[in-house]
Batch of 3 targets.
Target 1
Amino acid sequence: MNAPAKLNELMPQTVEFTLDGRAVQAFEGESILQAAQRHGVEIPRLCYKEGLRPDGNCRSCVVEVKGERVLAPSCCRNVTAGMEVEANSERALKSQRMVVEMLLSDMPEAGYKWNDGQMAPGERTPAVGQHGELSDWAQRLGVEVRPALAALRREQPAPDVSHPAMAVNLDACIQCNRCVRACREEQVNDVIGYAMRGADSKIVFDLDDPMGDSTCVACGECVQACPTGALMPKTQIGSQQVDRKVDSVCPFCGVGCLITYNVKDEKIVSVDGRDGPANHGRLCVKGRFGFDYAHHPQRLTVPLIRKPGVPKDFSDAPRPGDWQDAFREASWEEALAFAAGKLKDLRDTHGNKALAGFGSAKGSNEEAYLFQKLVRTGFRSNNVDHCTRLCHASSVAALLEGVGSGAVSNQVNDVEHAELIFVIGSNPTANHPVAATWMKNAAKRGAKIVLADPRITDIGRHAWRTLQFKADTDVAMLNALIHVVIEEGLVDEAFVRDRASNFEALRENVKGYSPEAMAPICGIPAETLREVARAFATAKGAMVLWGMGISQHVHGTDNARCLIALVTVTGQIGKPGSGLHPLRGQNNVQGASDAGLIPMMFPNYQRVDEPGAHAWFENFWGVPLDEKPGYTVVEIMHKALAPDDDPHKIRGMYIMGENPAMSDPDLNHARHALGSLEHLVVQDIFMTETAWLADVVLPASAWPEKTGTVSNTDRMVQLGKRALNPPGDAKPDLWIVQQIAQRMGLPWNYEGEECGVAAVYDEMRQAMHAAISGISWERLQRESSVTYPCLSEEDPGQPTVFIDTFPTADGRVKLVPADIIPADERPDAQYPFVLITGRQLEHWHTGSMTRRATVLDALEPMATASMNQGDLDALGLQAGDVITIRSRRGEVAIHVRRDDGTPAGAVFVPFAYYEAAANLMTNAALDPMGKIPEFKYCAVQVLPGGAPVPAADYGTGAVNAVAH
């Protein structure tokens, strides 16, 4: 949330009351239960859980309040001045014990959540019991069930194990409703309910469906909330004792949820959400149940070298379980010498432009920093990039140009303070599920969500208005909104006068973009455009959140320029509940970019061709540096296929944790480029599609096997700690990068634990002193998460920026007018459909991790394309049929599923599946400024029938599921 801005927020008011005969203080608005706990008085509680709305239904927390006839539930009764409370009076204890005994009497003989060997709060001996918190409180209150009461035990309901991740055993349910509140009020998924009356009352999923058949999205908030084990992760039924708990950060999307790994017998057995500033204990299905990829039998455990004479056939499907066909095992010394030696030889023979490196947004800041430093000082060029080029490069380009910073202005959960939330080009419930919960919570409190997207996604159920505009018409629609603001006198004149430049050019440009003129182009009625523009301009706070639907176009930079202009002319930036937030896709896209893992920028977005920055880094690193920006991801692929007489031909590459053979556009071209390299070094945890084309494969560490920092979409630098050791002879990525550097002649020596991670971080902090100088390694050890900009140890960080000025040359927003630029490729008679690509909830990026996670693969085991019912009918198709989608570059055969949120004339394909790789078809045309490919729009045919490629051999879920 936003940092406190007022003294009374920093210093809450207190009230005095009496607790068990002694005078104590409570904070204003604090419950009796919370105040008592702060003062060391433990009151039983079962339906209460911190973070959930208090419900007061179990009555195990009752206390005696002087002068009142009945006992009061302490969880939902606030303290008042002068109140006299007895938490341990004879009457209160008798009632507490009675409630606990009655609940315990209905429990099954064998429970599901044994708390054996665990210490109860304030206890010196372990609590013993089979029913979680209920057994714990029974033991502490000295409660045993009388035989006569046990004889009246209810008829026990049958178990429900239909869900891949969770077991439902309602014989252990005490109907505390914590799961209902977690599902309906926290996550706002509206799956779990409370049905029937009296003795027949029970917890149900949807319309009393089995959990596995319900609309459950497997966030697991219910299992984290359940006190007794009635809802449990299947991996941890029974004893809850583990060998250790290790705090870390979720390794998937950019929300940056803090987590705790539960480790037993050197395996992660479950994951809990921590009370981090981005998630406050919440997780999604990937964060909670996607952890066992780290233990998959296909993990790379020894260095590999390609066998002599084995060709790099880029059309050959990788066989991750049969790598012996193409590779042989090698020692680390041999593999490192070969990897670095050949790279060094290519550099010395063909010049500094002959090499390139792709770093990773899935690793740590320290790895990203060292990797880009290796390329710049060891390869001696700026040919370094990572997946930000494929997601938000155009957003960053527009933000740097317009507001002087590529990071977000406000954090996601600042939507709590917004009256209007404008979500465009993003499917947050699938791509950023925990961030979506904050939006849904805000909508329940009365905020207006506007969803602007060619596809109507799940967040549309919570939207006030849905703008389902025609794909590729973003600029037309956004300029129409700006036109209304200016035409109807809704401009924040003071803000524009004092804090913006080039407004007159913007005003002149949008004169021709009236809603009436743009309605036929974008497909949104003019009056709806006017209504949304008025609501945005007049809202107390209006916040824009966008995804790759904005950025992955040849006009992606223009799309983002329009969003910057919209918030500027309305004054909706630089204050709580307003501003600009490009949602980051991977766990460290923000941090990797900040650390300089991009070809035109040193760390902290200092241009490599700016003389002052260039001189500073030459002095800091002590080596001469290339003065020219390097090539980007797609440009590097072109240069790998350049003729031999091209002095900038890329001949060797080092790829750490990226999978361009799946993530790049026009995959046949990209795979051809990778297979044509003279030397390719791939560092990864699995035999990915890219590793299959390598000359050397270096086995690396998964996220739970390393200590390091990542920076989330909210500008929070967050620390993750190592929970496991890498398997076999795999090594930490940080160690491998340093070994390559040393063999290329760089005198690196980072001393300390965990491969010198603290020393690397401290060097990175110096390189990024203008952003994170106040975030020391020691501070991260204490606090886990600190928001930047943070310039001193006393600085709490700045969740909201641009409050008084913008970090531009003149301190003002630079408004840049944008005009309609059509997609590089439009539908025609031969290719009449539009292909839209993206992610889905259960899988992430290229699937190399999530498709090896048992639960995730079981939930979504096969590739499907989405089309609406009208298009299915027109083609004579039914859900589950096979179709062939063909573009001018490639084709896939894939099963089709019905999705009426997909517009007519469009087909949506996720890009996580090798056997139906969406990027075989996508267009590599680039945004000229952001150098980002046009993933979100190309022309395709859709034909009935075809022969799907067998699923890649990941060895987890079934591959013959039916598409629903």
Note: The chain has 31 helices and 43 strands.
Target 2
Amino acid sequence: MNKMNHEIQRLNETKEIYGLVNFTGSMQQNLLFQDDTYITELSQIYDSIYANDEVESFSLYSSTFNFEKSSFGNSEFLYTSEANVFIPFLYTNDLFFEYFNLELTEGRNFTVEDYQKKSPVIPVLIGSDLTFKYKLGDILSPLGSQQYQVVGILKKNSSYIDIMATRDFKNLDQMILLPLNKNELLSAADYDSVIMRAYIATDDKSVLSNIVNQANELVNYSFAFKSMLYQSKFVAQDKEKSLQIQILLSSLILIFTFVTVTVSYLQFIEKHIYEFGVHLLSGATHKDLALRLGGQFLILLVLSNLITNSLFGGFSNLYISVIVSMLLAIIFLTIPVLRLNRMTTTSMLKGRIR
């Protein structure tokens, strides 16, 4: 949460950034998309956002490329269906790279020509995780007639924040970046996608009002601008509530588990009380009995940590997991060990507690 707040403050340090909130009715949107009658008007709205010297704008519109699974090869790290492999892509411009401080490890970034000229093969940048499949110069051929060529590879753990949509950081390691090129927008739906996912940085709110009014006059678009800083307050509140709920549920689970484990151990002690007495009579100590109890629990903790680390190693910290496991072992075994220490050898052999 602190990371998100810090990033939002950094992005809005020089100019406040605004995102679009769409209020256009479904009937009006269907009217816009049923044919390409309004492409000219949508093109003007596009220019008022992305070709306006009074503002700085970048798009966060993303979708997915579909590849045939049978010919794609290894796809274990990607989203798949029975027949297809899905790789998300994102339209970007030079301001996107500037605002989110993105760097490349190989190849080149997009050039002015990539953003302005139509090409039979569109240049793309790929996330670092996709290098298992693609290298510099490789051609991508998703379903459809358009082809793409890898011209650069992003630095590992590159990311951006989308406060209006996902409300969190988006990792780019398994994504493809495309240059936002107006010449590649062929339909009303294409224009609508990049318009409605625009982020605009400006110190003059009147410019935003002009864009809203122009859109309403041209195609009866109904949208408004919401400040990223303003939106972040609600995101923070939602995340705080979500965290509180998670803590509450985790506490309930922990209490239930504690009671269950404690009762099970006490029943285990009662069932094997005579056996414990014989051990003590044979020279064992209460410490040895405690180790016998704890050994069973430690085996479960070791197995659970190994499984968690092998399956979710990229999302978990083994060191912290082990420390938490040891604390849980101490908490869960406290009552059974205390009960065992209070029992004398005689009471154990008689099968009762003095």
Note: Residues 228-271 form the longest helix (44 residues).
Target 3
Amino acid sequence: MENSFNSNDPIYEAWEVEDPLGRDRETDLVVTTTRRALCRMAFVAAETAARFEREGIDHDPVAWMMTPRRLFDGESALDACLDRTGFKRAVILHGLSVGLDALPAQIDALMDDDDDFEFDDVEEAFEQSQSPGHRGRMQVIGGEQGSLGVPRFPTPVRHPSRPRDSAQHCAQRAKIAGRAHALSAMKAHP
């Protein structure tokens, strides 16, 4: 996958970048989004730049963010990473250093498909720390401002104990083995 970027590929022909120093125009595309989506895009931009620097990749990270990619079904990372799926694909691509572009199916095979939870452990711990009488790590301080403070005492996070040989554990191990196989196949056939 290291040589997966091909500037002659038709997918990279029709793309345009607005001049960031230019004045906004009435014809500019208006994007309505959430702060969470902006955080996803900022995270991918930072990870892209860090990876290119770390691995000595001679490619502009901003150009990578702005260019349409097969990984994002022909969208640019700038647009696709506002969505959770595009974000996860970019994080996996850069986290595993498997090239500059990939087929979505290759990366999706590595994604976690366990999205049937309401809260993860961190969110649950935060919710617990906000309960009355709990001297938790995260506390709202500053009255109406709603900023977070970190007191000096630790909060124990409870971890549910699961038997190591449970059906859920075995299924998880099989899923991890399948992802490892998919990653090996991707690296063997770029």
Note: The chain has a mean pLDDT of 74.
